[in-house]
From TrEMBL:
The gene is folE. This is GTP cyclohydrolase 1. HAMAP family: FolE. Belongs to the GTP cyclohydrolase I family. Pathway: Cofactor biosynthesis; 7,8-dihydroneopterin triphosphate biosynthesis; 7,8-dihydroneopterin triphosphate from GTP: step 1/1. GO terms for cellular component: cytoplasm. The keyword Hydrolase applies. It comes from Dethiosulfatibacter aminovorans DSM 17477. GO terms for biological process: one-carbon metabolic process; tetrahydrobiopterin biosynthetic process; tetrahydrofolate biosynthetic process. Homopolymer. It is an enzyme of class 3 (hydrolase). Its EC number is 3.5.4.16.
Length: 208
C-alpha cells in the first residue's frame, strides 16, 4: 500500500531542475573567483544539483500531498473517550533543513510531535517521515512546526496537535554574530494543547 502510494507520487511529482542548478552553481563558482574547470570543481555543479534534488525533495509536494502520501492509519486499535486528554507523543526525531534567508543549514534539530487521537491513529514511522519531508524545503523553523502540525492533523483528523522543535542554525553559528551552540526552540500548539493543564503535561513529558 505505502509502496504503491509513493510510486504514484514519484510519477507525478514536480521535478527539480537539476540542469538549471548546475548552470547557476557554475556561475557562482566563477563569481567567487574560482575556476569551475579545475580538477576539484569539475563535478561540483553536478554534485550540488544532485544534493539539492535530495535535500529539497519536500518542495515538490504540498502539505496536502504529503498527507496523502503518508496517510497510513489504524481505526480499531484504540477506544478513545470523547474529550480525553490522553495523547501520543513521539520525540527526538532528528531532521535537518535549510534557512530560506541565507540558504544556511539548520542542524541538530530534534522534533517532538503530539496529538490526541480521535478515530484514527497514525503509524509512528509516518510521523517521522512527515517531519523529515517538512524539513526538506527552504524553511523557517517556525514554519516547519506549522507544516508538520497541519499534515498530522490532516492524516489523523485530529484538531489537537502539538509540535516542538529545538535546533541550531548555521546562519548564527557560522556567520554574522557567530555564536556556536545557540539553540532555537519553537512550539506549535493547536486545539486543546493551548489549555494550561494539557500544555503543562506535554512539557513535562517532553522534558522528561
Amino acid at each position: 500500500m505505502e509502496i504503491r502510494k509513493i510510486t504514484e507520487f514519484a510519477k507525478r511529482e514536480k521535478k527539480i531542475d537539476t540542469a538549471a542548478i548546475e548552470k547557476h552553481i557554475r556561475g557562482i563558482l566563477v563569481a567567487l573567483g574560482d575556476d569551475p574547470g579545475r580538477e576539484g570543481l569539475i563535478d561540483t555543479p553536478k554534485r550540488v544539483a544532485k544534493m539539492y534534488e535530495e535535500v529539497f525533495e519536500g518542495m515538490c509536494y504540498s502539505n496536502e500531498e504529503i498527507a496523502e502520501m503518508f496517510d497510513v492509519t489504524f481505526e480499531d486499535d484504540l477506544d478513545v473517550e470523547q474529550g480525553s486528554n490522553d495523547f501520543v507523543l513521539l520525540k527526538d526525531i532528528e531532521i535537518f533543513s535549510y534557512c530560506e534567508h541565507h540558504l544556511a543549514l539548520m542542524y541538530n534539530m530534534k522534533v517532538a510531535v503530539a496529538y490526541i487521537p480521535t478515530e484514527k491513529v497514525i503509524g509512528l514511522s509516518k510521523i517521522v517521515r512527515v517531519a523529515e519531508m517538512a524539513g526538506k524545503r527552504l524553511q523557517l523553523q517556525e514554519r516547519i512546526g506549522m507544516d508538520i502540525a497541519e499534515i498530522i492533523g490532516m492524516i489523523t483528523e485530529s484538531e489537537d496537535v502539538a509540535v516542538i522543535i529545538e535546533g541550531e542554525h548555521s546562519c548564527i553559528s557560522a556567520r554574522g554574530i557567530r555564536k556556536p551552540g545557540t539553540k532555537t526552540l519553537t512550539t506549535t500548539l493547536k486545539g486543546r494543547f493551548n489549555e494550561p493543564e494539557l500544555m503543562g503535561k506535554l512539557m513535562m513529558m517532553y522534558r522528561g
